[in-house]
Specification:
The chain is of the alpha+beta class and 231 residues long. 52% of the residues lie in helices and 18% in strands. The strands form 2 sheets. Strands 1, 2, 3 and 4 form a 4-stranded antiparallel sheet that branches. It has a two-stranded antiparallel sheet with strand order 5-6.
């Protein structure tokens, strides 16, 4: 069983590729692989001990370039970096299999365990522009959230106001002069039942309801007679 890390040309680990929008980007990439122990004799005999240079590294270069060609530079650098690494790993396995097929090898041979994307190189001015754009997008999303909350609150208040208005309208329609007069009579009867002394004047010209005065209190506007006036 063998394991190793394949680097481009056996020296560096940087592969230059082009994104979907034409940006040339150097990618620092590492692939972890192992040689299937049962297949090792065949691989050494028909491919050679340098099988990594003939199988692994060519497959890695092709996989990295094909994968990046499916992503915009901004996405690869920021939001879709993990997705890019997964795509590279998928393409890597595909191309290892294709190269082994070229040697007419029916076994598994080399197993690709993991592809690591350690770094993506990009010009400073482009990186700054991408970061500013991402920051602007985040601010826009935050503002959208605030506006959405304000709209929801305004809608809530509108519904509440409409409910109050509907309630007042229903109540107003249900109140009539006869109902008010009846309620007044009921209240007068309840007052008349109380044990306190009172005077009931029938025929109030304003609403036709009796006027009730408690004899224990002064009538508004009334004046007590003085000693001279009582003579």
């Amino acid at each position: 069983m063998h394991a190793g890390t394949a680097n481009e040309n056996g020296q560096g680990d940087t592969i230059e590729a082009v994104s979907a929008d034409g940006m040339r980007m150097p990618l620092d990439t590492t692939v972890n692989f192992r040689l299937v122990e049962a297949d090792a004799p065949w691989v050494y005999q028909h491919i050679g001990e340098d099988y990594a240079d003939k199988i692994v590294m060519p497959a890695m270069r092709t996989a990295v370039r094909e994968a990046l060609s499916q992503f915009q530079a901004q996405d690869a650098y920021s939001t879709k970096r993990d997705e890019l690494a997964r795509k590279m790993e998928e393409m890597m396995r595909k191309h290892v299999r294709a190269l082994l097929d070229d040697y007419k090898f029916p076994g598994q041979g080399v197993i690709v365990q993991q592809v690591l994307l350690r770094n993506i190189g990009i010009p400073d001015q482009v990186r700054d522009a991408i970061e500013k754009k991402l920051a602007a997008e985040q601010n826009a999303l935050a503002m959208q959230y605030v506006l959405q909350k304000e709209t929801q609150e305004a809608e809530r208040k509108r519904i509440e106001a409409r409910g109050i208005s509907d309630f007042q309208q229903i109540v107003t329609q249900g109140i009539s002069d006869k109902l008010l007069a009846w309620k007044g009579i009921e209240a007068t009867l309840e007052i008349a039942k109380s044990p306190n002394a009172k005077v009931v004047i029938i025929g109030n010209p304003q609403n036709g309801l009796p006027i009730v005065f408690d004899t224990n209190t002064s009538v508004p506007g009334a004046r007590r007679a003085g000693p001279e006036e009582n003579k």
